[in-house]
Recover the amino acids of this structure.
């Protein structure tokens, strides 16, 4: 059995689609996850399995513990484009990182020598530089599925989409029209709220915009509407405690409109990503004054 772990976003879905194209649609066990949850997902994925086989990891930044966890599989291929450096890598684990690639899908395609229109679409979506209507439709479809579903259900829906996209018959996207139109309504309300409630701060000559939310949101939508001179755009998402997780979690998303390096800010909070788009997940409550203080410390 082949196991694939990939990022819960368009680039992650397309990376899986390309891999499926390569292996000609053979059934895989797919997990959609985030860098923060990866190690845990790997550990859970091996429970009660007699044979483990191959593990493929796409579009997820790792750290040593995650690499060691992955190494329990017979063979591992890890393909990514985030900015990170593996320390100790066992010989049966192959880590391929190209942090200059616009998308992980791009690196996957190059590694496996796959030609597909999906690569260019992933590049556009992952760099927030969407030009093709088809790229926008894929981005919206993934957003709509993520907004509507969660847990195992979300995993199944994204897996289904990855198989559908792998066929490169993009008329399959029509079946998501209703879901996408509901999603657009939610987006419009979100945009209005963001316009009203995004606050601008001056931190030592930097223009910092902050938006606070209580559920995960597509950050690019708000970021795209901000003035061009916003150096740092921070979205603070307060995730209330729930049954399986008794502590509050603050998700942080950072973007920039002036090419300011926001990766170091994410790294400060134990996260990662890219110089122009990064994020972190903190098991604590991070307030706006705390965040502004961190920016002041890091950018002087
Ligand atoms: Mn990516």
């Amino acid at each position: 059995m082949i196991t694939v772990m990939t990022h819960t976003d368009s680039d992650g879905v397309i990376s899986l689609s390309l891999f499926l194209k390569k292996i000609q649609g053979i059934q895989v066990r797919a997990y959609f996850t985030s860098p923060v949850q990866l190690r845990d997902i790997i550990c859970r994925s091996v429970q009660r399995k007699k044979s483990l086989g191959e593990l493929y990891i796409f579009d997820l930044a790792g750290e040593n513990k995650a690499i060691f966890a992955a190494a329990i599989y017979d063979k591992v291929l890890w393909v990514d484009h985030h900015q990170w450096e593996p320390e100790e890598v066992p010989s049966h684990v192959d880590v391929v990182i190209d942090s200059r690639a616009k998308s992980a899908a791009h690196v996957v395609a190059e590694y496996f020598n796959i030609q597909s229109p999906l690569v260019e679409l992933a590049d556009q979506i992952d760099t927030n530089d969407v030009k093709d209507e088809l790229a926008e439709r894929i981005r919206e479809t993934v957003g709509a599925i993520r907004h509507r579903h969660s847990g195992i259900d979300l995993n199944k829906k994204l897996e289904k989409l990855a198989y559908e996209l792998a066929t490169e018959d993009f008329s399959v996207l029509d079946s998501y029209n209703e879901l996408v139109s509901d999603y657009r309504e939610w987006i419009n309300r979100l945009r209005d709220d963001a316009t009203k409630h995004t606050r601008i701060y001056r931190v030592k000559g930097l223009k910092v915009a902050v938006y606070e939310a209580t559920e995960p949101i597509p950050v690019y939508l708000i970021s795209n509407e901000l003035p061009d001179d916003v150096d740092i755009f921070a979205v603070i998402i307060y995730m209330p405690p729930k049954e399986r997780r008794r502590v509050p979690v603050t998700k942080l998303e950072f973007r920039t409109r002036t090419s300011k390096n926001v990766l170091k800010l994410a790294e400060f909070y134990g996260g990662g990503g890219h110089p122009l788009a990064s994020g972190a997940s903190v098991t604590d409550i991070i307030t706006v004054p705390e965040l502004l203080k961190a920016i002041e410390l890091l950018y002087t």
About this structure: The first strand starts at residue 2 and ends at 7. The CA atoms of residues 168 and 217 lie 28 Å apart. Residues 11, 59, 81, 103-104, 126 surround manganese (II) ion (CB under 6 Å). DSSP finds eleven helices and eleven strands in the chain.
